[in-house]
Amino acid sequence: MSRAKLLVIGGGGREHALAWKCAASPRVSEVLVxxxxxxxxxxxxxxxxxxxxxxxxxxxxxxxxERVGLTIxxxxxxxxxxxxxxxxxxxxxxxxxxxxxSQLEGSKAFTKxxxxxxxxxxxxxxxxxxxxxxxxxxxxQRTPIVVKASGLAAGKGVVIVDDAxxxxxTAQAMFAGQFGDAGREVVIEEFLPGEEVSFIIMADGRDxxxxxxxxxHKRRDDGDHGPNTGGMGAYSPAPAVTPxxxxxxxxxxxxxTIRGLAADGMPYTGFLxxxxxxxxxxxxxxxxxxxxFGDPETQPVLxxxxxxxxxxxxAALDSRLGGVGAEWDPRAALGVVLAAGGYPDxxxxxxxxxxxERAARLPGKVFHAGTRLRDGHVVTNGGRVxxxxxLGATVGEAQRDAYALVDAIHxxxxxxxxxxxxxxxARERAAGPxx
Length: 435
Ligand code: AMP
Hints:
There is one protein chain. This protein is 31% helix and 28% strand. By secondary structure, the protein is an alpha+beta fold. The strands form 6 sheets. Strands 12, 15, 18, 19, 22 and 23 form a 6-stranded antiparallel sheet that branches. Strands 3-2-1-4-5 form a 5-stranded parallel sheet, with helices on both faces. A 4-stranded antiparallel sheet has the order 6-9-7-8, with helices on both faces. Helix 1 (13-23) runs parallel beside helix 11. The chain is globular, with a radius of gyration of 21 Å. Adenosine monophosphate is lined by residues 123, 146, 148, 158, 160, 189-192, 196, 218, 275, 277, 287-288.
């Protein structure tokens, strides 16, 4: 087979990791990234193109002009807009779910109804619009309670409140436009205690390939305190996902979801990310689905993937994922996100980043997220700026290498968590001395 050009859509840390991994494939002649970041601009065999990730017609034109053989979509925005349908209409191969099943991420109201209809475990809930809102129902619920804008709200549309009046006020603020259209429908659901885990698979419409387990840290500050963020770090494997839990998640969540979508006439091809709350009795309750690979989970997971990712995507597009397996580096990987001061609220852009050359000489890999090149120098250009990934025999050793990378890097107001992986490392310590 001749080598083909590959296109990655997006410009964050996940997309840098996807581009880096695909550029290592002997099946690929060149990796294009739209729009990319400074990390993809500097990566060998990778070229950025200045087309926005949600400019669907522009991306179709780009893929045709460059004769791209395979496109991988990073973020949810273009998926929910129907980019895979648009590519398929032009005969272009594109790995990701079509518009209809992307509602799993685009509409929490759709997802809750789907879960209920297919008997997949999830929190009890009600969905309201401004017109149907029933404050008396909300006041009759137990607290704490969770209020969610149904649509895409950049990770900000979920509010956990301790009393019913705050729940009513939060829902009304959402109806009033706090999250724009995303809050036209609001899901109000039971608060679930337990341990949160994420579970990521590839699907080909019918068959499933589970990826290596991973776990992220959503809160900004050490000890899982402070505001929610897009993710401050992640590691793989996640010891919380024992083989027994893995089996339960596949049986109770993943298979019924993939089969349910196929039965509903919207077969799912692409990465699928399930955010789960594991109840004290072991029930894997679905908190959310994302119709894409996680960020920052992608960075440590792909650092461990030995198989050729482009082969896995091609297998999925040809409906033969059931016949392939993935090979993983037995070592653990751990990524620490370096963020701009102020994130997840207001933050500055344009600060010069020092130490990237020093970090490049150390083991591990620094993936870029919110960065760009200014006069040949890498500067900050987003809230989450970099993700430093270390590998090691244990999560503890991977953590040591990741923080060695962090120590090499500096910019004004750089922020990061100091304890990424702490639960996994505590589990490792409880299990006995590390090798
Ligand atoms: P979501 O975007 O729906 O995953 O919600 C964002 C975060 O809010 C999750 O990662 C959880 O930490 C928390 N969360 C969401 N729903 C619930 C729930 N029903 N019970 C407890 N925590 C929740």
